[in-house]
């Protein structure tokens, strides 16, 4: 089979720089694609963490003035990742989060920062690096959204393009006065170009001009074609529905493997599931929860936000307490939600425990030690925590939306779906619906055989990138064939 060369473009990549699931996808997909004869290199911004991870990177190109300052294009490797890096200190040499200041506000020049990333990606697609001329360029989320537009307006021969939506809520909108500074022609600012209600929208640009559009689950692909789920872009997505598809995310089963995980208290697998109890005890101790094998321990690893439905979970705390359950939550986000969760933990010590922030080691222990993982999102393109939960025997309790609906088989729908049940789903997404799902989970937890079947079904579910990567490889080859015909 002919090797397909793909340039991926992303604003974050695990294990170097991560704020969310995008980084996990960008970090895991290249290795999974190798088995499908796809050679993927990934372009990332030269954040401080990226520069530290590639101390021996080779300089390929240098510009004295690139979007306002000197810049270099570098090439290097980190573990199995083959990377290009846009080293532009005036754009990326900043502490902390890639997108926001320490005060939590967007960097004021984010438009320029990510236009520069898209522009150099387009140039690589047009042959800037003779040793790697891609057949396809794959843009991830709004930060790479201008890439298909740059290629469209370049004229002449170009590679195929894919635009992947990881979350419609983030669209990259900037004032139309910035069009010239982005290097786009005046005619691009139209309803059939990058214009979006008087603004420039990076995501709209990608959706308008990409050869193919993907998102991270089949259900989310349907949801975003509606007016509510599309968040202003539903009409465009309906218009382009013929090139839109949903491909489920996977997880790196080398990183998320309870049989080899160095971050958990006791390693275990499906054949020695009783050993999982040691992780529950360790999690209870870590969170200062009362030691108990009989209490259903609910785990949460999440951004604290309206999207994630964490306000709904707060409203179910009376149910959690009345049913004798415990809650261990790891997350950060909305200041009001943080305060309310911390107040609940103070009010109910030993029953409710909260750690504000993110800790990768603690996240692994929650997956290994909680009995059930709760994901009550109002919308969820795919979700990764529930995939990790399946792998670790933490039974998911999820809302019936997006990728959550696609990856969890509810205990009540197993027969009709012809798949074994792996968890609990609820809809509509209300506090009453969530409370009902938690009561069902608690009832099942106290039926040892039922709970064990749920755990084993989850642990034997394929949540890897193996098949998902094959879907991407097939998509790339379809694009290449169409452009050659």
From TrEMBL:
Reaction(s) the record says it catalyses: [(1->4)-alpha-D-glucosyl](n) + ADP-alpha-D-glucose = [(1->4)-alpha-D-glucosyl](n+1) + ADP + H(+)
CDD domains found in the cross-reference section: GT5_Glycogen_synthase_DULL1-like
Q: Which residues form the Glycosyl transferase family domain?
A: 290-439
Please state the pathway this protein functions in, per its UniProt record: Glycan biosynthesis; glycogen biosynthesis
- Keywords attached to this entry: Glycogen biosynthesis, Glycosyltransferase, Transferase
Q: Which Gene3D superfamilies match?
A: Glycogen Phosphorylase B
Which stretches make up the Starch synthase catalytic domain? 5-239
Record-listed E.C. numbers: 2.4.1.21
- Give the superkingdom in one word: Bacteria
Q: Which residues bind ADP-alpha-D-glucose?
A: 18
Q: What class of enzyme is it?
A: transferase
Q: Which residues cross the membrane?
A: none
Function comment: Synthesizes alpha-1,4-glucan chains using ADP-glucose.
**Family per UniProt?**
Belongs to the glycosyltransferase 1 family. Bacterial/plant glycogen synthase subfamily.
Q: Which PANTHER family match?
A: ALPHA AMYLASE DOMAIN-CONTAINING PROTEIN, GRANULE-BOUND STARCH SYNTHASE 1, CHLOROPLASTIC/AMYLOPLASTIC
Know the name of this protein? Answer: Glycogen synthase
- Which organism does this record belong to? Bradyrhizobium iriomotense
Q: What is the lineage of its organism?
A: Bacteria, Pseudomonadati, Pseudomonadota, Alphaproteobacteria, Hyphomicrobiales
